[in-house]
Amino acid sequence: MVPDILSVSAVRIVRGRTEILRGIDWRVRRGEHWVILGPNGCGKTSLLKALTGYLSPTAGAIALLGRRYGEADWRELRLELGLVTSALQASIPPAEPALETVVSGRYAQLDLWARPKRREKAEAARLLRLVGLSYLAEREWIHLSQGERQRVLIARALMARPKLLILDEPCAGLDPVAREEFLWFVDGVARRRGGPALVLVTHHAEEIMPAFTHALLLKQGAVFALGAKDEVVTSRRLSGAFGARIRVQQQAGRFRATVAHRRG
């Protein structure tokens, strides 16, 4: 039997007297691409930290490719999970060329200290071509735009050939044109044969691209809804999760959410 790519079972996280997450059950199976949605404070960040090994659950279990966190060697397990988040950007040396930033993903380390091997440089160059940035291979990090940085970070995450790629609000800081171009790029990554399963964390239904198949909606630290995206990203369910009247429309595989104005 082929194991799920990701398995989250009855996960509960408590810190002090605060229950941050409770009873989270979720599976990511092969061929699925998920979106995590929810209002501020719903637990998205804590769930993400738990998935990436930076926050230990108080109860429950998380497994990647059938290997349970806390039992498998995390140094090996983390290579199966790629993460793209703006939090990484501050740790990348300003003078580091894009090619070396991509190579650093092979070792899941920042500020690459070892001299890249020839085959690693060749693989990094291939990934830069994949994300459309081969012409920026020698450009220093400090001179890359926000959109270019996000694409380099995706190439970096793919360097280790992960089975799961988590995109944590990757469109933050992008202008409308750059955001749309980046989203279509992500859609292409999701459609690549043999590529990783994607998990996109976002506040915006408009960022859910046609290639995404499922959605997880959180509210107050618990699962509010999960399943096929067309069954979860609806006016009724988003209104319930966000506590406001939200109208969801869908056209050509894209969503548009409008919040009703509160008068008085």
Describe this entry's structure for a reader.
The chain contains eight helices and twelve strands. The chain has 264 residues and is of the alpha/beta class. It has a six-stranded mixed sheet with strand order 6-7-8-3-9-10. A four-stranded antiparallel sheet has the order 2-1-4-5, covered by helices on one side. Strands 11-12 form a two-stranded antiparallel ribbon. β1 (6-15) and β2 form a beta hairpin. α4 (118-130) crosses α5 (146-158). The N and C termini lie far apart (58 Å).
Please describe the structure with a list of short key phrases separated by commas or semicolons.
single chain, 264 residues, alpha/beta, six-stranded mixed sheet, four-stranded antiparallel sheet, 8 helices, globular
Strand content range = 25-35%
**Which structural class best describes the helix and strand composition?**
alpha/beta
* End-to-end separation: 58 Å
Helical content stands at 25-40%
User: How many beta-strand elements?
Assistant: 12
